[in-house]
Design a protein that fits this description.
With 171 residues, the protein is an alpha/beta fold. The chain is built from 6 helices and 7 strands. The strands form 2 sheets. The protein has a 5-stranded parallel beta sheet, sandwiched between helices. A two-stranded antiparallel ribbon has the order 4-6. Helix 2 packs parallel to helix 6. Bound molecules: iron/sulfur cluster (SF4).
């Protein structure tokens, strides 16, 4: 036991280093997003994430927005548990047959004005799952889409840029 303890102390952490990122660029992007949300809505932006059938790769990047590294909430953006409290639906994955009705209901439950952002290459047209027996297609096959963010999966910075582009477009 003691040997193992000393070995671990000498080895140091086995996890990878966090990716290098310019804090100033992130802070500027986040602040621009906060200003755009206040201009457009008069308050913070609320986001409801919907997994319509993804492999969860896109979810990992979306969750990263809330971790201490990116800390999205410091810019006034927050994820909400109900579509009734949301301004934006952030939808990932190809739409599966099992999730189509749930996605349509979620869309109807979201109050106007609302925007739909399709996240990831699968959300555009089904991606690598297109044509599969369980796949309906991209998000636009089920509900209207306002913006698509490319990537497999898109990085947290790409997600922030996409949300900013959405608010700029909606102005
Ligand atoms: S775009 Fe890539 S990461 Fe996202 S759900 Fe599809 S395969 Fe997974």
């Amino acid at each position: 036991m003691r040997k193992l303890l000393f070995e671990n102390l000498l080895k140091g952490p086995v996890t990878e280093r966090a990716p290098a990122m310019e804090d100033a660029a992130l802070a500027e992007l986040g602040a621009a997003l906060e200003r755009a949300a206040r201009r457009k809505l008069g308050r913070s932006l609320s986001i409801r994430e919907v997994d319509a059938g993804s492999c969860n790769g896109c979810e990992l990047e979306i969750h990263a927005l809330n971790n201490p590294f990116y800390d999205l909430e410091r810019f006034g953006l927050r994820f909400v548990a109900s579509p009734r409290h949301a301004d934006v639906l952030l939808v990932t994955g190809p739409v599966t047959k099992n999730m189509q009705v749930a996605l349509e209901r979620t869309y109807r439950a979201t109050p106007d004005p609302k925007w739909v952002v399709a996240v990831g290459d699968c959300a555009l047209d089904g991606g690598m799952f297109a044509g599969g027996y369980a796949c309906v297609g991209g998000v636009s096959a089920a509900i209207p889409v306002d913006l698509h963010i490319h990537g497999c999966p898109p990085s947290p910075l790409q997600l922030l840029k996409g949300l900013l582009a959405l608010l700029d477009k909606a102005r």
